[in-house]
Structure formats: C-alpha cells, structure tokens
Write a structure and sequence with these properties.
With about 425 residues, the chain is mostly helical. The protein contains 18 helices and 2 strands. The longest helix has 28 residues, at about 330-355. The protein starts with about 25 loop residues before the first helix and ends in a 5-residue tail after the last helix.
C-alpha cells in the first residue's frame, strides 16, 4: 500500500525502469521530413507521387508552424507568381479546359515547392545535408532498378524499368531519369576531388553505379550534362584551390578519370545491344530533330506565332497546330503562359544564374552545395532549349536551393555592412 505521507516527488521512483522520456526537437523533425521528401523524389512513375504528397504536407506544416519569409527570396516568389498569372490569363485559349486546369495546377505546386525549399533552407542552411542524403538514396534506388531493368535481372524488370530499350528506373521517361542523376553525381565528384583518398573509395563505387545508370538511359542530354558538369566542378574546385600540392592531386585525379572513362566505355560497348543503341543515340541530330517539321523547324514557327498572341496559345494550343510538343522550355513558356509567363520564366532563370555566379568562388562551409547546384542548374537551363523541363520536380529543387543560398549570402553581406550595435 502506497504511503501517502511521502512528498509527490518521491513517487517518481515508482516508474518502470524501461520508461524513458522521448524528446524530439522540431529541427530533428524538419530534417527528417526533408530527408524523406528527397528520398522518394525518384518515385514518380505514379500520380500523385509520394514526393508530391510530402511537399504538400511540408507546405501546410511549415505555414502553420513558422514559415520564415526572408525578403531576399521575394524575387523568386514574385517572378513565380507572374509566371503562374501568365498561365491563368492563357487558360481561355486552352484546347481542353479540364486538362489545362490540371496542368496549371501542377505548375503552381512545383513553383511553391521551389519557394518552400528556398525559405526552409535559408533559415537553416545546414538542412542541405538532409536533402543531399535523401537525394542520394533516391538516385541509388532508381539507378539500381534501372540497371536491373535493362539487363532484365528479374521477371518483368525490363518492362517495368525501361522504355524503348532505354533505362528509366522509377521515372516515366529516360530523358528525365538521366538528368535527375546529375546533382548527386556532381556532389560525389566534389567529395572525391576535395577529400582524402580513404574517404573516397566507397563514394567512387557509388559514382560508377550512377554513371552506368546515366549511360544506360541513352539520353544525349544526360550524357552531355554528366561529362560537362563533372568537368565544370573540377574547374571550379581547381580555381578555388590556391595550394600547389592539392592542385597536383586534382590533375592526377583528372588523368585517372579520363583513362578510366575510356576503359569503361570500351568495356560497356563490347556488349552488342549496348553498342547498337549507343551508335543510334550518339548522333547529334536525329531524324526527328532536323526534319522540316521536326524539333528545330517547329521552334521558328512557334516563336513567330507567339509574337502575334500576347496571351499565348494556351495549354495544348501548340499541339493543335504542330505534330509534337515544343521541346523547348523557353518557347513553351511563351506558348503556354503568354508573354507575361514567358518573360517571367526567362527573367527568373537568368537572374538566378547571375545572382548565384559570384557565390561559387566564396569560401563557405556550404561551398560544395553552391558549386554543384549551380553547375546542375546551369546545365538544366541549357538543356531546356531542346527539351520541356518546365515540370521536372528536381529542376525546381535546384532553383529553391540556389535562392536559399542567395538569401543566406545576402544576409551575411548586410550583417558585415551594418553590424549590430554593441
């Protein structure tokens, strides 16, 4: 029988020995959600994707529990709103109103996902680590399934994870899967270039897997982005490194990488099926590019049309005139979002590139992220001239990361110019 004469504090000892109070900080939950969101970002073969649901959850959650809005990310928000407004104004011209509403709703969702990343990361830039780890998990899983699918490692794997003989993993299109692998490839490349050899062996193995996955996508854009991006990261690391010995190490790594790439390419091309597909896909201009009404021919006709229509052609309007899509994100911005949307989109892309460029040369703890994200975004912006990247989820992630770093750097500059009063 309990002695009620004892003070209440003494009763704490009566708890079971296995009782341990669980304390999880808000920051831990935030990073866990960011990691989870990034880790499912490759699973987009179904609609709505788990990534979409988690982004919606984060948008609602952060809005209620303290979404910190920095003035330095307002240009991103304003230009995205103008971009969306252009789509709304173009809605009456759409060939199918219901489909157009769904299309523009996806645009709104993706635009706010970029804004979400910008504000959440700018308040604590260290959260980038959680996104990096989650993104890497997503890339590895998608790549392993893509490779398994290409070589038909298990029943129906080929049907599930390839398209037209090209690896696509958990994506609907190989041309999206390939570029998706670019950011983690660049991040691992940066680590190999800047960290001791012993810490790079495991990551070098992961890098080989990602490179094989990108190769088997047989996406010309992915090939060019991967090779060009890795070389650009090397150049930026080399330029930022002032010491002679580390520079010699970098040159040695570059030489070994070049030799290894040639040997790997020879080994892979010894497989007949891969060699045939490579020969076909390696052509710089395909038949559907250079034909009279091919990709390049449609661009000139399309830009001529939009000069006469300030509100654009509306969703589906280009397809009603031409046999295929624009395959040019900048042209599509004008045809589908009108002059307002097109000008806003182009302004946002170039403003982002100009604002972020000086930051790649500043020594910061997050220099890896600004260099790799900037290179990835720049290459995506270039590839957007030949492909419709306006609804790529990871493209808006890159945009959000860059504006988060821009906001952080702007805050540092203001603090140095106007230090707090003592």
């Amino acid at each position: 029988m309990t002695d009620l004469s004892r003070p209440p504090t003494a009763l704490k000892n009566t708890r079971p020995f296995w009782h341990v109070p669980l304390k999880v900080s808000t920051e831990t939950i935030a990073r866990a959600l960011l990691f989870l969101t990034a880790s499912v970002s490759a699973l987009v073969v179904i609609e709505p994707a788990p990534y979409d649901l988690l982004i919606a959850l984060l948008l609602v959650g952060w809005s209620f529990f303290g979404l910190e809005l920095r003035k330095d990310v307002l240009p991103l928000l304003i230009l995205l709103c103008f971009y969306i407004a252009g789509g709304i104004l173009a809605l009456p011209a759409a060939t199918d109103t219901k489909e157009a509403v769904i299309f523009y709703a996806v645009t709104v969702f993706l635009a706010f996902s970029a804004f979400l990343y910008a504000v959440t990361l700018s308040s604590k830039i260290e959260r980038l680590d959680a996104i990096e780890k989650g993104y890497l998990v997503a890339a590895i899983c998608a790549t392993l399934l893509a490779i398994a699918g290409y070589f038909n490692a298990f029943p129906s794997a080929y049907d599930q994870f390839t398209l037209y003989g090209r690896a696509k993993g958990t994506f609907k299109d190989p041309n999206v899967y390939g570029p998706f692998l670019l950011l983690p490839t660049l991040l691992i490349t940066y680590d190999i270039l800047t960290k001791p050899w012993r810490q790079s062996i495991f990551k070098a193995g992961i890098l080989l897997v990602l490179l094989l996955g990108a190769f088997l996508s047989f996406s010309r854009a992915a090939w060019g982005m991967t090779l060009g991006g890795a070389f650009m990261v090397f150049l930026l690391v080399f330029i930022n490194e002032r010491r002679s010995v580390p520079r010699l190490k970098l040159l040695g790594i570059l030489s070994l990488a070049a030799i290894g790439l040639v040997l790997a390419l020879i080994a892979v091309l010894s497989i007949e099926s891969i060699s045939e597909m490579f020969t076909e896909r390696a052509k710089l201009v395909q038949d559907y590019d250079g034909a009279r009404m091919g990709r390049f021919g449609r661009w000139g006709e399309g830009f001529t049309l939009v000069t006469e229509r300030p509100f654009g052609l509306g969703f589906g309007g280009f397809n009603a005139i031409f046999p295929e899509d624009e395959h040019n994100a900048y042209l599509k911005a004008f045809t589908t979002y009108g002059w307002l949307g097109g000008l806003s989109y182009i302004t946002l892309v170039f403003w982002t590139l100009i604002k972020a460029l000086p930051l790649v040369f500043k020594p910061r703890p997050w220099q890896k992220y600004i260099i790799c994200t900037y290179v990835a975004f720049l290459l995506h912006a270039c590839v957007s001239f030949i492909i419709d990247s306006d609804h790529w989820r990871h493209y808006f992630l890159l945009l959000g990361i860059l504006w988060a770093i821009i906001a952080v750097e702007s805050g540092i500059a203001r603090h140095r110019r106007f230090p707090p009063a003592q």
